[in-house]
Design goal:
Blueprint: E1 2-5, E2 8-10, H1 18-27, E3 34-35, H2 37-43, E4 57-61, E5 73-77, E6 85-88, E7 91-94, H3 96-104, H4 109-122, H5 126-135, H6 142-148, H7 159-170, E8 177-183, E9 189-197, E10 202-206, H8 214-229, E11 233-237, H9 239-244, H10 246-257
Parallel strand pairs: 4-5, 10-11
Antiparallel strand pairs: 1-2, 3-4, 6-7, 8-9, 9-10
Helix pairs in contact: 2-3, 3-4, 3-5, 4-6, 4-7
Protein name: DUF559 domain-containing protein
């Protein structure tokens, strides 16, 4: 057994399982406590990029509650309506749209865009998120949520792709087409790109870890050769580029678009 906090223990074999940690924390949580924020995002299967791993469970409790956070939990005091709470995997949890509004108060815009893209692809529509902003139009995160929501797109296929898209948005570059299918003059399939500016024949790819696998690497090279031969400019970036040399990424894409 491992000790999560002063009266909460968990078998070591399941200490890294989100559901097990949530269940253990709820045993000593106040009545009507609701799983929220990053933990709710985890239960909904949402990946949050650019964040350090934090095993603590996030709870939202009544605003008048005197309960405090512990080593294994973070306590938030924000009013909840019945429409903000549902059940997921047997646990009381904030709805996807309420989770989004809560995360808007904590995440940087790029990470929030990644979460928003995933929500639109899997759990709710843009009007649902807009309703959350109507309910809480002011306060921490409201301006950030308003800035991110119009940029969100359910076609995004990875969180870091969303982070790259926010970087380009902040730089004032024109919005790209997502998951753009490129065909030759005869209509034959040449490839599909993460981001594309068809008028300029510019494609941008974000290469995650899977692109290091040998068969994927070979396929990437062959596809890139086909695209270049057809007159497209192909730029490929990794997380090291997006996070470590963002300015150079923007400069390269801007230069390609201006050719």
């Amino acid at each position: 057994m491992i000790r999560l906090s002063r009266d909460t223990y968990l078998p070591r074999a399941v200490a890294g399982v989100l559901g097990a940690r949530v269940e253990a924390v709820l045993l000593t949580a106040p009545d009507r406590a609701v799983i929220s924020h990053a933990t709710a995002a985890g239960l909904w299967g949402l990946a949050i990029p650019l964040q350090r791993e934090d095993p603590r469970v996030h709870l939202t409790v009544a605003t008048g509650s005197s309960v405090r956070g512990r080593r294994d939990r973070v306590v938030h005091r924000t009013p909840l309506t019945d429409g903000d709470v549902t059940t997921r995997d047997g646990f009381p949890v904030t709805t996807p749209e309420r989770t989004w509004r809560d995360l808007a108060a904590l995440l940087e815009p790029a990470a929030l865009l990644a979460v928003t893209d995933q929500l639109l692809a899997r759990w709710c529509g843009r009007p649902d998120l807009g309703t959350q902003l109507t309910r809480r139009p002011a306060g921490r995160g409201s301006a950030r949520a308003r800035a991110v929501l119009p940029v969100a797109d359910p076609r995004a296929e990875s969180p870091m792709e969303s982070v790259l898209r926010w970087l380009l948005h902040e730089a004032g570059l024109p919005a790209p087409e997502l998951q753009y299918v490129v065909r030759d003059d005869a209509g034959g399939f040449l490839g599909r790109a993460d981001l594309a500016w068809p008028d300029q024949k510019v494609l941008v790819e974000f290469d995650g870890d899977v692109h290091r696998e040998r068969h994927v690497f070979i396929d990437d090279l062959r596809r890139q050769n086909r695209l270049v031969a057809a007159g497209w400019t192909v730029l490929r970036f990794t997380s090291a580029d997006v996070l470590g040399r963002a300015h150079e990424v923007v400069v390269q894409i801007r230069r390609a678009l201006g050719r």
